[in-house]
Amino acid sequence: MRKRTIWSAVLAATLVLPAALAAPAVASPSTAFGVSAISAVSAVSASSPIADQLIAGLPAARAAAEATRARLGLDDSPLRSAVLDVIDPTQYDCPTANPPVLDAISAGIQDWTADQRLAAVYAILFDIPMTEAAYLSTPGPYTFGAKGAYSKKATQTFKDLKRFWDIKSYDIQLVPAHGRMLLNQARVTKVFTTIYGQPADLSANTAAFIAAQVDTPALKFGDHPIFTFNAYANSSEGVPTPGIGLVPDRIVMGDGVLDGFALVGLGDVTTQAIIGHEFGHHIQYEDGLFQSTLPAPEATRRTELMADAFSAYFLTHRRGDNMHWRRVQQFVQMFAQIGDCGFSAPSHHGTPNQRTRAALWGFGVAESARRQGVVLPSRVFAARFETVLPALVAPDAD
Questions:
Q1: Is residue 398 domain-resident?
Q2: Number of domains in the chain
Q3: Is the pLDDT of residue 112 over 50?
């Protein structure tokens, strides 16, 4: 299965650690679960036999999770290249402070107990709610946002995108990922055993530990945004996934990314912008736009910035969501906040400045044809994007 995501969910793992031990905000997303994160969690005192077992087994669990995700194609390789640095970070302007959305969703985490942090690390390391939604059948009816606040908007946007773009899209599903599923030990155990191949007894014990820690006000009974601060677009392209079978093409929307951006005043545009971005990846699947001779970081950056542009074009086109300048400024802010500076990471999505430029370029293409109302064929739009990509990613450091 091939997957594209708005942001590597493992970056959120740093949020469960004490501030003094967490990886810096500018670290590559692929290294957020590196040695510093594991050693920090390992340093806490175990409060129970299962906690002691989970702490001791964390390095092995990380290796197992990464190996499975690499085999299934659910995530890019998490190992940062020690030899090849294909994009020179000294040539790009990158912020050193956390984006506002990360500060908003991490508020109060410093007060979590060691067991709560440990449970959160496992939930995020194995990306349990998002992985279940991507690979397994989840019960409906589907709602979007922890309280269902974005259900109508998400459903309508998805319908509009299918109408707007010229690709085969009848077989794409829009499904939610709810963090509260972490309270359901049977479902969590199934993710561990079915997708990651973990032993049944350990999986059940881990699921029980996670449920006990998540079922607290501090972790919002599973509705805390860190558990689902992501969105996926995936396609099996008709090939069965080993051990799982044929998985439908899907867009997975995590509650956390919708509720998280609402905390910083961007809830009015996030649902449409993120679904538009993930639908952009399905355009790339259908039109064969993933092929690239670029090295991994640059290749991923290209497809992510193109998806930003696809989304912005739909959001502002008269026959799309028809957003005007005030809301354009909002979704541009949103894309900027999910930029990253992991220049050598295979999952590099583009710096905040690059994502801003890609979104503004897509807006400009739509705005230039507002009177005519003509929707460009997706391949034509992509070809135009390719011509401006060098300018979008040009070095911008002072």
A1: no
A2: 1
A3: yes
